Amino acid sequence: MTHKLLLLPGDGIGPEIVAQAERVVRTLARTHGLKVETETALIGGAAYDAEGDPLPSSTLELAKASDAILFGAVGGPKWDTIERDLRPERGLLRIRSSLDLFANLRPATLVPELASASSLRPELVAGLNIMIVRELTGGIYFGQPRERAERRAYNTMVYRRDEVERIARRAFEIARLRDGRLCSVDKANVLEVSEFWRDIVTAMGKEYPDVELSHMYVDNAAMQLVRAPKQFDVIVTGNLFGDVLSDIAAMLTGSIGMLPSASLNEQSRGLYEPVHGSAPDIAGQDKANPLATILSLAMLLRYSLNEQVMADAVDDAVADVLAAGLRTADLQQDGGSSIGTVAMGDAVIDALERGAA
User: Fold this and answer.
1) Which tens digits make up the pLDDT trace of 76-86?
2) Where in the chain is the domain with CATH 3.40.718.10?
3) What is the pLDDT of residue 334?
4) Can you spell out the DSSP letters for 53-100?
5) Dihedral (CA of 167, 173, 174, 175) sign
6) Are strands 129-135 and 103-109 parallel, antiparallel or unpaired?
7) DSSP string covering 163-204, please?
8) How far is Cα 264 from Cα 255, in angstroms, rounded to an integer?
9) Which of 148, 245, 290, 337 is deepest in the core (most CB within 10 A)?
10) ω before 145 within 30° of 0 (cis)?
């Protein structure tokens, strides 16, 4: 079976990091027999500059026809003053909504070699392995009505029962494949929408007796993530809370440049992207860390293409590179030498080829 893969490099460092992941795809085709057809399209500021729209209809049609999408990053100061609905980030929000990518998977793992890079003591984070499952297409970012006027502004946080049920079900199923523990995060002591969320998740827990379900208020969850993060296995939460908590979890690992993510629909077709932004300050300088994008490719292979062996091979190659002491500038903590974007891509490809030999 030949998979259809769409590449959306976007803005800033996006083209550089996606280029390295594309090289990994070509290597997998040569060493592991991956059958894939790739296409590249515009999104974000690059699309706005070319076509006046951060998500052109041609890009959206290619996305709908793809088995999976590998995305780089969007945005930058260049587009900060244009109309809000035409800003680069709106292209990403629209593609998530149009493809119904409701489940955002944000792993936060810490390999032993990088434990000293975390802002927490190594003993608190060594061996960290958390999966945050964030609802992505509902909640306050999409709630209607919304208004901004001279004297007031408001947004509404809205969740339907089916939206809560499907994200909870995905989280229960992921927890079942891991350590069997799921923590649902809300603000049910204050918000009716969170009380609604908690009631639904609690009821669904009866369908998963093999998963230990707990609940936590979001403010306490934020505190616990920096106090004792290894208490968590899988966290499920809404769009706004998930946005905040996943960035907190990201910094536990020492560098946001190491963290991948997946956004899936009900058919497990999805968009995969590094957690970090477009970093326009280092764009075009061969300084960006491509590992989060390469690890996003591993998630793509695992969750959308069902190529588990190849996904493991990519993860192992990244682990081998880090074990060998290779670091991009964002990972270098002791003042030692670092390597650039292309050299890190070379190292991962070399490790893949050795593993396949």
Assistant:
1) 999 999 999 99
2) 1-120+259-357, 129-252
3) 67
4) -SS-HHHHHHHHT-SEEEEEE---GGGTTS-GGGSHHHHHHHHHHHTT
5) positive
6) antiparallel
7) HHHHHHHHHHHHHHHTTSEEEEEE-TTT-HHHHHHHHHHHHH
8) 24
9) 290
10) yes
DSSP H or E segment with residue 153: strand 153-154
The CATH class of the 1-120+259-357 domain is: alpha beta
Which residue, 325, 304, 247, 312, is CA-closest to 71? 304
CATH fold group of domain 129-252: Isopropylmalate Dehydrogenase (3.40.718)
- Kindly report the number of other CB atoms within 10 A of residue 234's CB atom: 26
Q: Which residues of the chain have pLDDT under 70?
A: 334-336
Residue 107 Cα to chain centre, angstroms: 8
**Tokens describing residue 146:** 């919304």
> Measured between alpha carbons, how far is residue 313 from residues 225, 253, 269, 272 in Å?
30, 22, 21, 18
DSSP structure class, residue 220:
H
* pTM attached to this predicted model: 0.87
Judge contact between 139 and 238, C-beta under 8 A. yes
Q: 246-269 burial by CB neighbour count: b if 16+ within 10 A, else e? A: bebbbbbbbbbbbbbbbbbbeebb
Quickly tell me which residue has 């209809």 as its tokens: 57
* Whole-number CA gyration radius for the chain: 20
Q: The tokens 């296995």 sit on which residue?
A: 233
d(CA 199, CA 188): 9
- DSSP states of 249-318: HHHHTS-GGG-EEEEE-TTS-EEEEESS---TTTTTTT----HHHHHHHHHHHHHTS--HHHHHHHHHHH
Residue 262 one-letter amino acid? A
Dist CA 348 CA 342 (whole Å): 10
Query: Catalytic residue numbers?
Result: 141, 187, 219, 243, 247
Number of residues that make up the chain: 357
SS3 248: helix
CA distance 314 to 309: 9
CB 275 within 8 A of CB 107: no
* Res 335: pLDDT: 65
